[in-house]
Every structure is written in C-alpha cells, then in structure tokens.
Amino acid sequence: MEFVDWDYAAKLTALNAVALAGMAGAPAPPQNVSVSGAVRPSTTLAWDRPDLAENPHHAGVRVWWRLTTSPQWERSVFVPDNGEARQRYTLENVVIDNYFFGVSAVAADGSESPVVFPGPAGAFE
Fold it and tell me: What are 106-121's pLDDT values in tens digits?
C-alpha cells in the first residue's frame, strides 16, 4: 500500500465511472448483423431492428468500416431507422475483402452502443 499513487487511482476510478455511466445509458446493440458482397463492387450490411418497447429512443444505426490494417474505425455513415423489421444498407464501391465492418445502435440523444461485428460464418448473407 505504501507505493500506491492514491491521486492517480482516484482519477482512474472517476474515469471508469464516467465510461460505465455512458455505456449504461447507451442503446442496446444491433442484433443478427450480417454482411454480404462477395464478388461485387459494393458491400451490404443487414441487422434486425430493435424492439422499440425496450428501445423507445432508437433513431437508427451507424455503419462503420475500416481497412483491415487499421487499428481503429476510419469511416462511418448514419442510417436512420426505416421502420422495417430487417434493415440493410449498401456501401457503394466498398469492396468486402478490403475492410472490416460493424454496426452500432444510435439513440435520439446521440448515444451509441458498442460496435457489433457481423455474426459467425453462418450468418453471412
């Protein structure tokens, strides 16, 4: 205990509390995310619309993509909710082989869920 930096530990604890509070207030992540686009010049992502009774402030999703060599998300586009049970969005001129893809839910207040990658190998369309 004599070597613990208590000021640093207090700041780290506060940062963790703020991060957890943000995650707790974020919408539920998208479900059943899938990707398709093999042998095509464009990539389509699809996901199931959340239950609006459980997510009343759902505004849409953000589709993310990054080069396979990039350590962080480079590009994104907001896709408003269209009212359909299964929703999809096509990224024109984005080749599936060159990127990683993900989808996060966005609430009306701008808060976002963690990014969800497309499901297991059987979930690709």
Answer: 999 998 999 999 986 4
CA dist 58 and 49 (Å) reads: 9
CATH number at residue 56: 2.60.40.10
Token pair of 98 as six digits:
């060159």
The whole-angstrom separation of Cα 55 and Cα 10 is 34
**12: burial class by Cβ within 10 Å (0-12, 13-18, 19+)?**
exposed
Give pLDDT tens digits for 12-42. 999 999 989 888 888 888 999 999 988 889 9
Please give the tally of structural domains in the chain: 1
88 assigned to some structural domain = yes
Angle at 106 between CA 58 and CA 96, to 5 degrees: 120
